[in-house]
């Protein structure tokens, strides 16, 4: 199911708030594009919120996704502020590792000390 796949893609753990917002927007766009044309949006949105509920507290990107879904249900029909993230060089694998290390504790050494 596309919803489960979207949630698993968003559930990557701690990340900077700006990156979480961007990922949440991309996840929302992926989810809404995958809905069948005849789908009941309100029902699908409530189902998405229920499926993502367990992941909201541990994943900022899932939280951003849920906030967008909630905003779409509670506000009058209007375009949501969605945008693609700006194109930028991310620096490859080294930059991604450095980006994720900002919240991770140091691994223990061979004797179990941090």
Structure description:
By secondary structure, the protein is mostly helical. It has one domain (2-101). It is 55% helix and 0% strand. It is built from five helices and no strands. The protein has helices at residues 2-10, 17-33, 41-52, 60-74, 92-101. Helix 1 (2-10) runs antiparallel to helix 2 (17-33). The radius of gyration is 17 Å and the shape is globular. The mean pLDDT is 83. Residues 77-114 are annotated as: Disordered. Residues 87-97 have a biased composition (Basic residues).
Q: Which characteristics define this entry?
A:
mainly alpha, 114 residues, 5 helices
| Oligomeric state, counting identical vs distinct chains | single chain
The biggest beta sheet, please? Answer: none
Bulk shape: globular
Q: Unreliable segments (pLDDT under 50, ≥5 consecutive)?
A: none
Number of domains: 1
E-strand count = 0
* Structural class by secondary-structure content: mainly alpha
Helix content: 55-70%
The count of helical stretches stands at 5
Give, in order, the helices and strands: HHHHH
Task: Give the end-to-end Cα distance, rounded to a whole number of Å.
Answer: 41 Å
Radius of gyration, whole Å: 17 Å
Beta percentage is under 5%
**What is the average of the pLDDT values?**
83
